[in-house]
């Protein structure tokens, strides 16, 4: 079954032959174009989406989620310890503090989105909660939560391209970075509200715990 998912995901990424951006160990901001596979390990179900990540260290991130057919699924933003996002396919808006349950309504998984800052910027997750193994290059290769419930790994590195796998007891999240730029689009640099999603008028609003 794992082989089937691997072949399927590889086919979805087929044709991506763009030369990867040179690795930048000093990057403080960036734009990552990714393909993301979410696997429900209990139900043996999977879903693939495209996600554009825009982030500025240490605590600002925006993610635009698009379905394989090209329509917008969701817009998510993190500013410090607050998260806001709109699920366009359901006309629902969520806001609240960052926690392990922040993105459960969107991806059906329990994961604190703070992890995204570490994996995208190639930083080891913080100890003592995490034990991390570094590659010879000094970059993180694998991090395990001390209780064994989460494993985060970075594989298939070619410059800034990489595969990030976040595995929990009941799900697996694979993020394949297709392209990276350390220069944010002009609209991002000039928009002071880019890292906050506002509730559209017709959406129902929910407060996250």
Features:
209 residues, mainly beta, 4 helices, globular
What do these coordinates show?
This protein is mainly beta and 209 residues long. The chain has a domain at 30-123 and 170-199. It has 4 helices and 12 strands, in the order H-E-E-E-E-E-E-H-H-E-E-E-E-E-H-E. Strand 1 (29-40) and strand 2 (45-56) form a beta hairpin.
Query: What is the number of strand segments?
Result: 12
Question: If helices are DSSP runs of H or I spanning 4 or more residues, what is the number of helices?
Answer: 4
Over all CA atoms, what is the radius of gyration? Answer: 17 Å
Q: Could you spell the SSE succession in H and E letters? A: HEEEEEEHHEEEEEHE
What is the 3D shape? globular
Between the first and last Cα atoms, what is the distance in angstroms?
Answer: 35 Å
Q: List the uncertain runs.
A: 2-17
Mean pLDDT: 91
| Percent in strands | 35-45%
Give the fraction of residues assigned to helices.
10-25%
Largest sheet: 12 strands, mixed
The order of strands across the largest sheet is 7-8-9-10-11-1-2-3-4-5-6-12
Q: Structural class given helices, strands, pairing? A: mainly beta
């Amino acid at each position: 079954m794992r082989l089937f998912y691997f072949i399927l995901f590889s086919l979805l990424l087929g044709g991506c032959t763009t030369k990867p951006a040179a690795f930048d160990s000093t990057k403080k901001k960036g734009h990552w174009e990714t393909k993301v596979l979410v696997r429900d390990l209990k139900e043996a179900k999977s879903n693939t989406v495209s996600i554009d990540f825009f982030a500025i260290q240490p605590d600002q991130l925006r993610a635009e989620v698009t379905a394989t057919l090209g329509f917008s699924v969701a817009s998510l933003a993190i500013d410090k310890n607050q998260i806001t996002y709109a699920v366009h396919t359901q006309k629902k808006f969520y806001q609240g503090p960052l926690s392990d349950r922040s993105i459960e309504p969107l991806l059906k998984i329990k994961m604190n989105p703070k992890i995204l800052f570490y994996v995208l910027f190639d930083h080891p997750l913080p100890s003592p909660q995490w034990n991390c193994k570094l590659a010879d290059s000094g970059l993180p290769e694998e991090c395990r939560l001390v209780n064994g419930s989460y494993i985060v790994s970075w594989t298939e590195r070619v410059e800034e391209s990489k595969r990030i796998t976040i595995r929990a007891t009941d799900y697996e999240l694979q993020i394949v970075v297709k392209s990276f730029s350390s220069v944010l689009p002009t609209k991002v640099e000039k928009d002071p509200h880019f890292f906050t999603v506002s509730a559209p008028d017709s959406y129902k609003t929910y407060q996250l715990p």
